[in-house]
Amino acid sequence: MTKSGLLMGTMVAVLALGGCNKTPEPPKTETESGAMDDVVTASANPQVGGAAMAPDKTILANAAASPILSQLTAAVNQAGLADTLSGPGPFTLFAPNDAAFAQVPAVTRDGWARPAQKVVLAGVLKYHVVPGKLTTADLAAKIDAGGGKAALKTLDGQDLTATKSGEAIILTSASGNKAAVTQADMGQANGIVHVIDAVLLPKM
After folding, report:
1. What is the CATH number of the domain that holds 46?
2. Residue-wise DSSP of the chain
3. What are 130-134's contacts with CB under 8 Å, separation 24+?
4. Which residue of 77, 116, 158, 180 lies most exposed, with the fewest beta carbons within 10 A?
5. 202 within domain boundaries
6. For the FAS1 domain, which residue ranges apply (predicted)?
7. What is the count of structural domains for the chain?
8. From the CA atom positions of the chain, what is the Rg in Å?
């Protein structure tokens, strides 16, 4: 097995074990008063980490402006996907926040930063992108129509499974780890963004 293969195998094992046997609790969001509510944030003028998500800007431009999506922005640029997420789309991006990237083992993150791992990193990021514009209402409708789950075809060609836990949208990767949508329905010029609390892993 090559070093890169071993690295990715380790990554999948570590993160899958950490997430495949549990269902995330409905995400909590912070209100202006500082209280925590069991409601996914969605508003006409949403902010992510204090930065407004401008509906006339692209997914990448808005992500670059948010202080809690800095790791995602850096990864997109590293993987050579800047043109894609700045393109016409439309796309639905499930955007891992910086806390989600911090859960990834350091050895894996260091590996992703290497030029030799560019294709691997691009595959991971494409797994978070679904062609078309899917709001949480659209996702909920697909889940209901599918008898409790919906298979979403991602930009890398693999399926991502969406389910509900209460009112929260839960995503389960092909490798078995899970992420919850913590902030939803942020319209962009070329699609829509939903912030999630874990990095989802495709099958390698």
Report:
1. 2.30.180.10
2. --HHHHHHHHHHHHHHHHHTT--PPPP-EE-TTS-EESS-B--SS-EETTEE--TTS-HHHHHHH-TTSHHHHHHHHHHT-HHHHHSS--EEEEEE-HHHHHTS-HHHHHHHTSGGGHHHHHHHHHTTEEES---HHHHHHHHHHTTS-EEEE-TTS-EEEEEEETTEEEEE-TTS-EEEEEEEEEEETTEEEEEESS------
3. 130/91, 130/92, 130/94, 130/154, 130/155, 130/160, 131/89, 131/90, 131/91, 131/92, 131/155, 132/90, 132/91, 132/92, 133/89, 133/90, 133/91, 133/92, 133/191, 133/192, 134/92, 134/192
4. 116
5. no
6. 56-200
7. 1
8. 16
How distant, in Å, are the alpha carbons of 139, 140, 158, 168 from that of 145?
A: 10, 9, 20, 17
pLDDT digits (tens, 9 = 90+) for 130-189: 999 999 999 999 999 999 999 999 999 999 999 999 989 999 999 999 999 999 999 999
- Residue 51 has what pLDDT? 74
Strand 91-96 to 191-196 pairing: parallel
- In degrees, rounded to 5, the angle at the alpha carbon of residue 132 between the alpha carbons of residues 128 and 138 is 90
Domain that holds residue 188: 3-196
Number of residues assigned to the chain: 204
Tokens of 55: 């509906």
Give this prediction's pTM.
Answer: 0.78
